[in-house]
């Protein structure tokens, strides 16, 4: 029986949106994954909790959006009481020793990952797939993380063929997937909601 290939997409999902779905579907297709797990964080250590919706509401919103049977919304971080990605990955690998995990993240996170707890350990623990985001291409590919791990960068297969073996890579390995410039972000959606609310209140 072959090992399952699972993509891990972490975040606050405040709220979950079409961009998360787009990245997940692209990862399933281009990396030959069996599933993608959305790891909904109880609280992002780098973000304020001021405008953070309740965890249960974020979970419910993610489940309503993730209707594909190959996308699983997970409460794992809350269950184990963890918010640091490096520790979450370590615990997931301990509990699922025969699973091949791939960390999925947007180019904006490749820019800021040097601020994460034990961020270099993330690169050493599992392959990383970085998905392009509008306005972040140059910053991501010229940033600290990309430069330190430039030797570990791998490139997509030609002619759109899926990288079926990427999940099985060991040691630091990362790939930049450039055709995923989806304009949506959770911040954009929250700001839109706030602006709509202000517009309605002024009528």
Short description:
With 203 residues, this protein is of the alpha/beta class. The chain is built from 9 helices and 7 strands; from the N terminus they run βαβαβααβααβααββα. The protein has helices at 18-30, 55-65, 76-80, 85-95, 107-112, 119-125, 137-141, 144-148, 186-201, and strands at residues 5-11, 35-40, 71-74, 100-106, 128-131, 153-154, 174-177.
Molecular structure report:
The protein has helices at residues 18-30, 55-65, 76-80, 85-95, 107-112, 119-125, 137-141, 144-148, 186-201, and strands at residues 5-11, 35-40, 71-74, 100-106, 128-131, 153-154, 174-177. The protein has 203 residues and is α/β, with parallel strands linked by helices. The chain has one domain (5-201): Rossmann fold, CATH 3.40.50.620. A seven-stranded parallel beta sheet has the order 3-2-1-4-5-7-6. α4 (85-95) packs parallel to α6. The chain starts with a strand and ends with a helix.
Keywords:
203 residues, alpha/beta, 7-stranded parallel beta sheet, Rossmann fold, 7 strands, single chain
Give me the secondary-structure topology.
Blueprint: E1 5-11, H1 18-30, E2 35-40, H2 55-65, E3 71-74, H3 76-80, H4 85-95, E4 100-106, H5 107-112, H6 119-125, E5 128-131, H7 137-141, H8 144-148, E6 153-154, E7 174-177, H9 186-201
Parallel strand pairs: 1-2, 1-4, 2-3, 4-5, 5-7, 6-7
Helix pairs in contact: 4-6
Give the domain tally.
Answer: 1
Q: What's the total count of β strands?
A: 7
Rounded Rg: 17 Å
Largest sheet: 7 strands, parallel
- Return residue spans where pLDDT drops below 50 for at least 5 consecutive residues: 188-203
Give the helix level as a range of percent. Answer: 25-40%
Mean pLDDT: 88
- Secondary structure category: alpha/beta
The ordered string of helix (H) and strand (E) elements is EHEHEHHEHHEHHEEH
What's the CATH H-level superfamily name?
HUPs
By CATH, the architecture is named: 3-Layer(aba) Sandwich
